[in-house]
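Appendix C reproduces, verbatim, an entry submitted by the partner laboratory led by Prof. M.T., so that reviewers can inspect both the input and the predicted structure.
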Amino acid sequence: MEYIDLRSDTVTKPTPEMREAMAEAEVGDDVYRDDPTVNKLETIAAEKLGKEAGIFVPSGTMGNLLALLVHCQRGDEVILGNQSHIYLNEAGGMSALGGIHPNPIPNQKDGTLAVEDIIASIRDSEDVHQPITKLICLENTQNICGGIPLTVEYTKQIGDLARKYHLAFHIDGARIFNAAVAQNVDVKDLVAPADSVMFCLSKGLASPIGSMLVGTEKFVARARHLRKMLGGGMRQVGVIAAAGLISLEKMTLRLGDDHKHAKQLADGLCTIPGIVVDEDSPKTNMIYFNLAKGVKVTSQQIGERMKEAGILVDAYHPSRFRLVTHYWVDDDAVEKSISAFKKIMQ
């Protein structure tokens, strides 16, 4: 059965154009830096985000870990959100592999970290009892808070704060192009204050694999060395980098369709008794909603019945859902999903 898959935008399969480009890609050994397709992808990625250089990595998790390892030494501390992907969903790599101490502070409802909380969390570097604060991390869009895009103004404020306190600033921009499209701003402006940025090719941009890490030439040179250490030095990787070029050149231009479909889906769900869509959801391509009190069916049971109807949903909490739209979710898929939810809830 061909499912409508709303679990995540990580489920996207390469488009026919991507498959053709992958089959015809010019390749070389990327560890030797002679894969022309990868070199082109890294150059374009850096240019699109207004940074000096870029490096292709197998996953966003590795990209974020590389950034932390470049910015911090063992025993240093990073300030980040308690709802951030780096803190919750990257297997504790910063601590296990980098010896880096996380200092999580509350994400606000809008996905931001309160400036006063950040300032209060910066350690006194002269106190020998404390780890040394070296880095601030933001996530844009902020997934768990609802796929919320952080603004240019807020990001600049954090960049100014980081410079004032002599800290590095990294953005986990797994869905940074969604954030730019949602606010109708240039992605360069969203990341200008950051020393480094990671973004994924394999989510809304529909590549089958890969993420990019961008920053200064010096930063990327060190990240390249650490990538090899972590086992991320790949060989004829132009085969998948070819899909990434299409992601950057074409898929970034159509993300508004995903946001439109998310809004259509959320509007339909709002009409179904027993479903309570989060206020102001969606902001981008993610819809979060709860089951109303008194509803006797669980999210797991709903997930099973949706699967029987040919639709996959992320039922990871007894009464809460996250649905994500992407390239392979069209108007027809949205209508079928609304109808299936309505039938099950009735």
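The first helix runs from residue 16 to 24. Additional entries are available on request from the coordinating office.
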